[in-house]
Amino acid sequence: MGRRAPDDEHRARDAAPRYLKDNDTPLALAWRVISSRYRSMRDKASRDFMRRTLRIGISARIFHPEPGATGLRSKNLQYLEESIAQWVMSRDVLVFMIPTVNTSGQLHPSNITLRHYARHLDGLVLQGGADVSPQTYSEAATRPEWNGDRARDLYELELLHEFVDAGKPVLGICRGCQLINVGFGGTLYQDIASDVEGATSHVNDLYDRHRHTIVFPKGSSLAGLFPKTGEALVNSIHHQSVKDLGRDITVEAYSQGDNIVEAIRYQRARFVMGLQWHPEFHSAGGVELLDCTPILDNFLRAARETRF
C-alpha cells in the first residue's frame, strides 16, 4: 500500500475527532464545556446545601440579680433549659443560645445586634419561662406576682420581629406562644383560674406530669399534621394564656372543656407557631403524650427552605 501524500497527512492531522458532529463549532464546543462545568458546580452546591447543618437560635431565659445578693446571684445570668436544647438537637441540628445585646454597654459595647443573629441563623425557638408582663400588652398587673419580665419581653419581641422580617421560621413554647400573640397585638389572661370562670386546672404541683386533652380545629395545620387524632394529650404548665388574638393569628389547638387556646399560628409567614404546652417534655414516639416530632420537623423544613 502506498504512502499517503504530505497534503493528506496534514489534513488528517488537522481534522476534528470523529466523535464530533459535522456542524460542531468551537463556540458550540465551548458552550457545552461551560454548561457541563456549571451543572457540576450546581450539583455540588446543591449537595453541600443539603448537607450543611441547620443552625437554630434559642432565646435566653434571664435570671435577674437578687437584691442584696453576692456572688453569682448578684449577676445577670442568661441560660437554656436543657430539655429544649436537646429536643431541637435530636433532629441533628446545631443549637445556639442568643444572648441579649447591648450596643451602649459601658464595659463591653458591641456593634452586634439581634438582626445579625436573625441574618446568620436559620430559625428561632422562643423558650418558656417567666410571665409576659401585662405592661407589654398595655395592661396593669392585677397582682404584684404577675408583673412578669418586661426586660425579657422587649428582648424577645425584637428577636421575634427580626426573624419574621428575615423570613425565618419561629417556634414559641409556652411563654413563647403567648409572646407571639402579644407581639402581633394580642392580649393574655393574666391568670386563668382568676380570669376564666369554670376553667380547668392548667398548672399544679405535678409540673410537667400535669396533663390535659387538647383539640385541633378542623382545617388547622395541626389537624392536617395529625390527621388520625382530632385530639391529643399534652402536658400543662401555665397559669397565663392567650386571650384576644393578635392580628393575623389563628387558633391551632384549644383545651378540651374550657376552650383555652393551646396553640396559635401567624398566618402571614411561612412558619410562625406557638405551642402552649412543652413538647420538649414529651417522649419521641410516645404512645400517651402527643409525639411533637412532626411539628419540630415542619419547623426545621421551613428553616431549610427559607435559608436563602
From TrEMBL:
<dbReference type="InterPro" id="IPR029062">
    <property type="entry name" value="Class_I_gatase-like"/>
</dbReference>
<keyword id="KW-0378">Hydrolase</keyword>
<dbReference type="Pfam" id="PF07722">
    <property type="entry name" value="Peptidase_C26"/>
</dbReference>
<dbReference type="GO" id="GO:0005829">
    <property type="term" value="C:cytosol"/>
</dbReference>
<dbReference type="GO" id="GO:0006598">
    <property type="term" value="P:polyamine catabolic process"/>
</dbReference>
<dbReference type="InterPro" id="IPR011697">
    <property type="entry name" value="Peptidase_C26"/>
</dbReference>
<dbReference type="GO" id="GO:0033969">
    <property type="term" value="F:gamma-glutamyl-gamma-aminobutyrate hydrolase activity"/>
</dbReference>
<dbReference type="InterPro" id="IPR044668">
    <property type="entry name" value="PuuD-like"/>
</dbReference>
<protein>
    <submittedName>
        <fullName>Gamma-glutamyl-gamma-aminobutyrate hydrolase</fullName>
    </submittedName>
</protein>
